Amino acid sequence: MPHRQRTLQELKARAPRIATMRGVVGLDGFVDQIVHPVAQRHGQGAAFTPIATIAEFGQRILAAAGKSTNIELYPVMEKLGGNGPLMANGLLAGGLAVRYIGALGAPTIHPILQDFATRSQAISIAPPSVTIAAEFSDGKIMLGNTVSLDAITYEAVVAAVGRDALRAQIDEAALVALVNWTMIPNMTALFRALQRDLLPGLPVRRERVWFFDLADPEKRSREDLVEALRVIAGFGAHGSVTLGLNLKEAQQVCAALGLEAQAVDERGLRAMAREIRRELQLGTVVVHPRESAACANAAGEAWVPGPYTATPKITTGAGDHFNAGFVLGQLLGLAPEGCLTVGVSTSGYYVRTAKSPSLNDIEAFLRD
Length: 368
Hints:
The chain is α/β, with parallel strands linked by helices. The chain has a single domain (3-367), classed as Ribokinase (UDP-N-acetylmuramoyl-L-alanine:D-glutamate ligase, 3-Layer(aba) Sandwich). The protein is built from 13 helices and 14 strands. It has helices at residues 3-14, 54-62, 83-93, 114-119, 154-161, 163-172, 187-198, 222-233, 247-257, 266-280, 318-331, 336-353, 359-367, and strands at 22-26, 30-41, 48-50, 73-81, 97-102, 123-124, 129-136, 139-145, 175-179, 209-213, 240-246, 284-288, 292-297, 300-305. It has a 9-stranded mixed β-sheet with strand order 6-5-1-9-10-11-12-13-14, sandwiched between helices. Strands 2, 3, 4, 7 and 8 form a 5-stranded mixed β-sheet that branches. Strand 5 (97-102), helix 4 and strand 6 form a beta-alpha-beta unit. Helix 12 (336-353) crosses helix 13.
């Protein structure tokens, strides 16, 4: 039976369970300005030919060395952004009750993030950062102003939420997702403080998912990355740890850990997930390039192809929606192959529609 049919059967039987679960997600927050760089303008408004690829964009910039250039960024949309809010949006659409903690506005919630804050019962601890996301046919370049994320510390979270309330929310949660380590300078210290000050004494629930996403650690040092990965592994004492990685992140983690480079095919993706998991002793490691996805857990590895499209409506947030779908599968107790299938389908639906899908939407997407 094809993996899509197996996943459909699992989803139909188990989807109602998600309404009984809760999640805690954080800790970043962004306003995303999606833009298309202009190559040649033919008139006002949208009458232009966009710069099609990152290579073409790079050549335009390189040609300006020693001189100057002017590149117009045509606004496509302004929307909520950040790994945490985008993943939480995907979880909410899938039916999970979410409490969001992060940088959504101070002293008041940013207007772009207000609806999300209401739906996620959010507690804001800092102003949002801003990303200008330039989208191309072969990827995207994200230019971020992240200074507001310096205010995200363990002490700030405890002050905003309350220590007892935070303990209670984690105790009730089937999922705790802490994402965007790269852009939050104090995140490793926050992880250590949670393990030292808050989690001891809480009942250990092996089925609780602790999910982590690094968010492109290229700008962080190897030493910082390895330290963070080892600290993340420490959450295994309090549940099951899942580390989500896109292809570039997986390659960076392999290099940092001194693991052998792998080919970018089914066998290589399975091997990357397996070796990272073995090295860090994690519950699950996921590796998801654009065209497919693989994961490894104690039972072995799985791989599925993705519903890739060459003409996406949006790409910013695709990985976060994959993460949401994969975790929804985990919470529902789907097999690893099913978790991957829900992950790639959630991402595939999102990039085609610019909307976060419900589980019913995912079922329809799989049937079609």
